[in-house]
Amino acid sequence: MRAVRFHETGGPEVLAVEDVPRPEPRADEVLIETRAAGVNPTEIYSRTGDRQHPLPRIPGADVAGVVTDVGDVVDGFDVGDRVFATALQNDRQGSYAEYVPARTDRVAHLPDPVSFETGAAAGVVTTTAWLAFVEHARVTANTTCLVHGGSGGVGHVAVQLAKEMGATVVSTAGSPETRTFARECGADGVLDYSRPDLEASVRDSVDGDGVDVVLDHRVGDYLQFDLDVLAAGGTVLVIGNPQDECHISDLWPAIRTDATIQVFAMSNAPDLSAVLDEVAPLLADGRLDVHVERRYDFEEAGEAQRAIVEDSFPGKAILVP
After folding, report:
1. Tens-place pLDDT, residues 299-308
2. Which of 84, 282, 289, 301 maximizes the CB count within 10 A of its CB?
Protein backbone atom coordinates (compact mmCIF):
# COMPACT_ATOMS: atom_id res chain seq x y z
CA MET A 1 0.00 0.00 0.00
CA ARG A 2 1.01 3.66 -0.32
CA ALA A 3 1.79 5.60 2.84
CA VAL A 4 3.41 8.87 3.81
CA ARG A 5 6.43 8.26 6.08
CA PHE A 6 9.45 10.00 7.54
CA HIS A 7 12.71 8.27 8.46
CA GLU A 8 14.17 11.21 10.37
CA THR A 9 12.72 14.23 12.10
CA GLY A 10 12.84 17.60 10.41
CA GLY A 11 10.89 19.90 8.13
CA PRO A 12 8.06 19.05 5.74
CA GLU A 13 10.59 17.80 3.22
CA VAL A 14 11.25 14.63 5.28
CA LEU A 15 7.79 13.32 4.36
CA ALA A 16 7.73 10.94 1.40
CA VAL A 17 5.21 8.57 -0.17
CA GLU A 18 6.46 4.98 0.00
CA ASP A 19 5.21 1.46 -0.68
CA VAL A 20 4.87 -0.40 2.62
CA PRO A 21 3.24 -3.70 3.63
CA ARG A 22 -0.48 -3.58 4.20
CA PRO A 23 -1.08 -4.01 7.95
CA GLU A 24 -3.10 -6.78 9.57
CA PRO A 25 -5.47 -5.77 12.36
CA ARG A 26 -4.71 -6.95 15.87
CA ALA A 27 -7.40 -8.79 17.81
CA ASP A 28 -8.95 -5.57 19.13
CA GLU A 29 -8.61 -3.55 15.91
CA VAL A 30 -10.42 -2.91 12.66
CA LEU A 31 -8.62 -2.26 9.39
CA ILE A 32 -9.90 0.84 7.59
CA GLU A 33 -9.52 1.54 3.89
CA THR A 34 -8.76 5.25 3.90
CA ARG A 35 -11.05 7.59 2.00
CA ALA A 36 -9.62 10.70 3.66
CA ALA A 37 -7.22 11.56 6.49
CA GLY A 38 -7.17 14.68 8.64
CA VAL A 39 -4.18 17.01 8.97
CA ASN A 40 -3.52 18.32 12.49
CA PRO A 41 -0.75 20.11 14.40
CA THR A 42 -0.11 16.95 16.43
CA GLU A 43 1.40 15.32 13.33
CA ILE A 44 3.82 18.21 12.99
CA TYR A 45 4.95 17.80 16.61
CA SER A 46 5.71 14.18 15.77
CA ARG A 47 7.56 15.02 12.55
CA THR A 48 9.73 17.69 14.19
CA GLY A 49 10.69 15.47 17.13
CA ASP A 50 8.65 17.15 19.87
CA ARG A 51 7.06 13.74 20.45
CA GLN A 52 9.27 10.70 20.33
CA HIS A 53 8.22 7.73 18.18
CA PRO A 54 10.08 4.81 16.65
CA LEU A 55 11.18 5.53 13.08
CA PRO A 56 10.26 5.24 10.26
CA ARG A 57 6.89 6.73 11.09
CA ILE A 58 3.55 7.15 9.37
CA PRO A 59 1.97 10.30 10.85
CA GLY A 60 -1.73 10.98 11.13
CA ALA A 61 -4.29 11.06 13.94
CA ASP A 62 -7.58 11.09 12.00
CA VAL A 63 -9.11 8.90 9.31
CA ALA A 64 -12.44 8.13 7.71
CA GLY A 65 -13.16 5.18 5.45
CA VAL A 66 -14.61 1.70 5.15
CA VAL A 67 -13.84 -1.31 7.36
CA THR A 68 -12.12 -4.04 5.32
CA ASP A 69 -11.15 -6.46 8.12
CA VAL A 70 -11.90 -6.96 11.82
CA GLY A 71 -9.86 -8.48 14.64
CA ASP A 72 -10.83 -11.67 16.43
CA VAL A 73 -12.36 -10.02 19.50
CA VAL A 74 -13.98 -7.03 17.77
CA ASP A 75 -17.68 -6.54 18.43
CA GLY A 76 -19.90 -3.87 16.90
CA PHE A 77 -18.07 -3.38 13.60
CA ASP A 78 -18.37 -5.36 10.37
CA VAL A 79 -16.66 -5.36 7.02
CA GLY A 80 -18.20 -2.65 4.89
CA ASP A 81 -19.08 -0.28 7.75
CA ARG A 82 -18.46 3.43 7.23
CA VAL A 83 -16.33 4.67 10.14
CA PHE A 84 -14.21 7.54 11.42
CA ALA A 85 -11.44 7.37 13.98
CA THR A 86 -9.01 9.55 15.92
CA ALA A 87 -5.87 9.53 18.12
CA LEU A 88 -4.33 6.86 15.92
CA GLN A 89 -0.67 7.84 15.88
CA ASN A 90 0.02 7.95 19.61
CA ASP A 91 1.03 4.32 20.12
CA ARG A 92 1.25 2.95 16.57
CA GLN A 93 1.50 4.05 12.94
CA GLY A 94 -0.85 6.80 11.82
CA SER A 95 -3.47 7.56 9.19
CA TYR A 96 -1.52 8.95 6.22
CA ALA A 97 -1.86 5.57 4.50
CA GLU A 98 -4.22 3.68 2.21
CA TYR A 99 -5.07 1.19 4.99
CA VAL A 100 -5.10 2.08 8.69
CA PRO A 101 -5.53 -0.22 11.71
CA ALA A 102 -7.43 1.31 14.61
CA ARG A 103 -8.39 0.18 18.09
CA THR A 104 -12.14 0.03 18.50
CA ASP A 105 -12.06 2.44 21.46
CA ARG A 106 -11.00 5.12 18.94
CA VAL A 107 -13.48 4.31 16.15
CA ALA A 108 -17.16 5.12 15.61
CA HIS A 109 -19.70 4.58 12.88
CA LEU A 110 -19.91 7.45 10.40
CA PRO A 111 -23.54 8.33 9.66
CA ASP A 112 -24.57 8.07 6.01
CA PRO A 113 -25.27 11.83 5.62
CA VAL A 114 -21.69 12.67 6.68
CA SER A 115 -19.03 12.62 3.96
CA PHE A 116 -15.73 10.82 4.42
CA GLU A 117 -13.97 14.17 4.08
CA THR A 118 -15.96 15.62 6.98
CA GLY A 119 -15.40 12.47 9.03
CA ALA A 120 -11.64 12.66 8.47
CA ALA A 121 -11.56 16.32 9.47
CA ALA A 122 -13.72 15.79 12.55
CA GLY A 123 -11.75 13.52 14.89
CA VAL A 124 -9.25 15.62 16.81
CA VAL A 125 -11.19 18.87 16.64
CA THR A 126 -14.61 17.60 17.67
CA THR A 127 -13.35 15.37 20.49
CA THR A 128 -11.17 18.21 21.81
CA ALA A 129 -14.07 20.65 21.81
CA TRP A 130 -16.42 18.07 23.37
CA LEU A 131 -14.01 17.16 26.16
CA ALA A 132 -13.31 20.84 26.81
CA PHE A 133 -16.88 22.05 27.11
CA VAL A 134 -18.81 18.94 28.16
CA GLU A 135 -16.39 16.99 30.33
CA HIS A 136 -14.10 19.66 31.81
CA ALA A 137 -15.93 23.01 31.86
CA ARG A 138 -19.51 21.67 31.89
CA VAL A 139 -20.80 24.56 29.81
CA THR A 140 -24.48 25.48 30.16
CA ALA A 141 -26.85 28.07 28.73
CA ASN A 142 -25.67 30.51 31.41
CA THR A 143 -21.98 30.19 30.51
CA THR A 144 -19.93 32.83 28.73
CA CYS A 145 -17.01 31.50 26.67
CA LEU A 146 -13.96 33.01 25.01
CA VAL A 147 -12.59 30.88 22.16
CA HIS A 148 -9.21 32.01 20.89
CA GLY A 149 -8.81 31.46 17.16
CA GLY A 150 -12.48 30.88 16.44
CA SER A 151 -11.87 30.26 12.74
CA GLY A 152 -9.27 27.50 13.18
CA GLY A 153 -9.64 23.74 13.32
CA VAL A 154 -10.61 23.32 16.97
CA GLY A 155 -11.83 26.89 17.28
CA HIS A 156 -14.60 26.86 14.68
CA VAL A 157 -15.98 23.61 16.08
CA ALA A 158 -15.71 24.88 19.67
CA VAL A 159 -17.70 28.01 18.78
CA GLN A 160 -20.46 25.87 17.25
CA LEU A 161 -20.55 23.39 20.13
CA ALA A 162 -20.71 26.11 22.78
CA LYS A 163 -23.58 27.76 20.90
CA GLU A 164 -25.32 24.36 20.62
CA MET A 165 -25.09 24.18 24.41
CA GLY A 166 -26.69 27.62 24.71
CA ALA A 167 -23.61 29.58 25.78
CA THR A 168 -22.66 33.13 24.88
CA VAL A 169 -19.47 32.97 22.81
CA VAL A 170 -16.83 35.61 22.14
CA SER A 171 -13.98 34.73 19.82
CA THR A 172 -10.76 36.16 18.41
CA ALA A 173 -9.42 35.95 14.87
CA GLY A 174 -6.71 37.71 12.93
CA SER A 175 -8.16 38.86 9.61
CA PRO A 176 -11.46 40.27 8.36
CA GLU A 177 -12.08 37.01 6.47
CA THR A 178 -11.49 34.74 9.45
CA ARG A 179 -13.53 37.01 11.71
CA THR A 180 -16.41 36.78 9.26
CA PHE A 181 -16.09 32.99 9.25
CA ALA A 182 -16.12 32.82 13.07
CA ARG A 183 -19.33 34.87 13.08
CA GLU A 184 -20.84 32.49 10.53
CA CYS A 185 -20.00 29.66 12.95
CA GLY A 186 -22.21 31.37 15.52
CA ALA A 187 -19.91 33.54 17.64
CA ASP A 188 -21.82 36.37 19.31
CA GLY A 189 -18.80 38.64 19.04
CA VAL A 190 -15.51 38.31 17.16
CA LEU A 191 -12.52 40.51 17.98
CA ASP A 192 -9.19 41.19 16.30
CA TYR A 193 -6.71 39.66 18.74
CA SER A 194 -4.13 42.35 17.89
CA ARG A 195 -6.28 45.27 19.05
CA PRO A 196 -4.72 47.13 22.03
CA ASP A 197 -7.99 47.19 23.99
CA LEU A 198 -8.67 43.47 23.66
CA GLU A 199 -9.24 42.87 27.37
CA ALA A 200 -11.77 45.70 27.64
CA SER A 201 -13.44 44.57 24.43
CA VAL A 202 -13.86 41.02 25.72
CA ARG A 203 -15.38 42.33 28.94
CA ASP A 204 -17.70 44.68 27.04
CA SER A 205 -18.87 41.73 24.95
CA VAL A 206 -20.09 39.94 28.10
CA ASP A 207 -21.47 43.00 29.94
CA GLY A 208 -18.24 43.69 31.82
CA ASP A 209 -18.28 40.69 34.16
CA GLY A 210 -15.58 38.59 32.55
CA VAL A 211 -15.94 35.19 30.90
CA ASP A 212 -16.60 31.89 32.61
CA VAL A 213 -14.54 29.69 30.28
CA VAL A 214 -11.55 30.37 28.03
CA LEU A 215 -10.39 27.84 25.43
CA ASP A 216 -6.78 28.68 24.53
CA HIS A 217 -4.45 26.97 22.05
CA ARG A 218 -1.79 29.71 22.35
CA VAL A 219 -1.34 29.68 26.09
CA GLY A 220 2.31 30.75 25.76
CA ASP A 221 1.03 34.09 24.49
CA TYR A 222 -2.24 34.49 26.35
CA LEU A 223 -2.25 32.76 29.75
CA GLN A 224 -1.97 36.00 31.71
CA PHE A 225 -4.60 37.60 29.49
CA ASP A 226 -6.90 34.61 30.02
CA LEU A 227 -6.69 34.99 33.78
CA ASP A 228 -7.23 38.73 33.51
CA VAL A 229 -10.58 38.32 31.69
CA LEU A 230 -11.96 35.47 33.83
CA ALA A 231 -15.11 35.84 35.86
CA ALA A 232 -15.30 34.50 39.40
CA GLY A 233 -14.91 30.73 39.44
CA GLY A 234 -13.77 30.73 35.83
CA THR A 235 -11.74 28.09 33.99
CA VAL A 236 -8.94 28.35 31.44
CA LEU A 237 -8.83 25.26 29.21
CA VAL A 238 -5.35 24.74 27.78
CA ILE A 239 -4.70 22.83 24.56
CA GLY A 240 -2.05 23.03 21.88
CA ASN A 241 1.71 23.04 21.45
CA PRO A 242 3.56 21.00 24.10
CA GLN A 243 6.56 23.33 23.72
CA ASP A 244 4.70 26.48 24.81
CA GLU A 245 6.38 28.26 27.71
CA CYS A 246 3.73 29.63 30.04
CA HIS A 247 4.28 32.50 32.47
CA ILE A 248 1.97 34.20 34.96
CA SER A 249 3.34 37.64 35.76
CA ASP A 250 0.46 38.61 38.05
CA LEU A 251 -1.20 35.90 40.11
CA TRP A 252 -3.79 38.20 41.66
CA PRO A 253 -6.48 37.73 38.96
CA ALA A 254 -6.35 33.97 39.51
CA ILE A 255 -6.48 34.36 43.29
CA ARG A 256 -9.31 36.89 43.08
CA THR A 257 -11.47 34.63 40.91
CA ASP A 258 -10.54 31.19 42.31
CA ALA A 259 -9.45 30.38 38.76
CA THR A 260 -8.97 26.86 37.45
CA ILE A 261 -6.34 26.12 34.79
CA GLN A 262 -7.23 22.81 33.14
CA VAL A 263 -4.56 21.35 30.86
CA PHE A 264 -5.72 18.35 28.86
CA ALA A 265 -5.14 16.27 25.74
CA MET A 266 -7.98 14.54 23.95
CA SER A 267 -5.87 11.41 23.48
CA ASN A 268 -5.90 10.84 27.25
CA ALA A 269 -9.63 10.12 27.24
CA PRO A 270 -10.17 6.42 28.02
CA ASP A 271 -12.86 5.84 25.37
CA LEU A 272 -12.77 8.20 22.42
CA SER A 273 -15.27 6.06 20.55
CA ALA A 274 -17.89 7.15 23.08
CA VAL A 275 -17.10 10.80 22.35
CA LEU A 276 -17.22 10.20 18.58
CA ASP A 277 -20.60 8.50 19.09
CA GLU A 278 -21.85 11.69 20.76
CA VAL A 279 -20.48 13.87 17.98
CA ALA A 280 -21.77 11.74 15.08
CA PRO A 281 -25.46 12.76 15.27
CA LEU A 282 -24.47 16.43 15.56
CA LEU A 283 -22.56 16.05 12.30
CA ALA A 284 -25.37 14.11 10.68
CA ASP A 285 -28.06 16.73 11.28
CA GLY A 286 -25.84 19.76 10.70
CA ARG A 287 -25.64 21.06 14.24
CA LEU A 288 -21.85 20.77 13.86
CA ASP A 289 -20.28 21.65 10.52
CA VAL A 290 -16.60 20.76 10.27
CA HIS A 291 -15.44 22.95 7.43
CA VAL A 292 -12.90 21.45 5.01
CA GLU A 293 -11.10 24.34 3.36
CA ARG A 294 -8.19 22.57 1.67
CA ARG A 295 -7.62 19.14 0.14
CA TYR A 296 -4.25 17.60 -0.69
CA ASP A 297 -3.06 14.28 -2.07
CA PHE A 298 -0.48 12.11 -0.31
CA GLU A 299 2.38 13.61 -2.33
CA GLU A 300 1.41 17.03 -0.95
CA ALA A 301 1.44 15.99 2.73
CA GLY A 302 4.42 18.22 3.49
CA GLU A 303 2.71 21.21 1.92
CA ALA A 304 -0.46 20.44 3.88
CA GLN A 305 1.46 20.42 7.16
CA ARG A 306 3.26 23.63 6.25
CA ALA A 307 -0.02 25.33 5.38
CA ILE A 308 -1.81 24.62 8.65
CA VAL A 309 1.05 26.30 10.53
CA GLU A 310 1.93 29.18 8.25
CA ASP A 311 -1.24 30.05 6.33
CA SER A 312 -4.28 31.62 7.89
CA PHE A 313 -7.31 29.81 6.53
CA PRO A 314 -10.61 28.80 8.10
CA GLY A 315 -11.44 25.28 9.13
CA LYS A 316 -9.46 22.16 8.29
CA ALA A 317 -7.16 20.55 5.74
CA ILE A 318 -7.34 16.89 4.73
CA LEU A 319 -5.43 14.35 2.65
CA VAL A 320 -7.18 12.27 0.02
CA PRO A 321 -5.34 9.15 -1.25
Report:
1. 999 999 999 9
2. 84
